[in-house]
Amino acid sequence: MIDSEGKRLNELEARATFQEDTIEKLSKELSIQQKEIVLLKEELKSLKESNEKNIIEDTAERPPHY
After folding, report:
1. Does the pTM of the predicted model rise above 0.70?
2. Where does the pLDDT of residue 49 fall: very low under 50, low under 70, confident under 90, or very high at 90 and above?
């Protein structure tokens, strides 16, 4: 009986250790992805502004045949 309880305790400790490791890895990955999202949002904003500027310039400078 004591042996089976010890075995069960070891299994629970191993499972807890595995879960802690998994949570730490997921937390690091989440942090990396959050930073990447911020960078992508900044890049998207810059591209939108550049595109809007180009549209305004294109409509202001129509070719002579218009």
Report:
1. no
2. very high
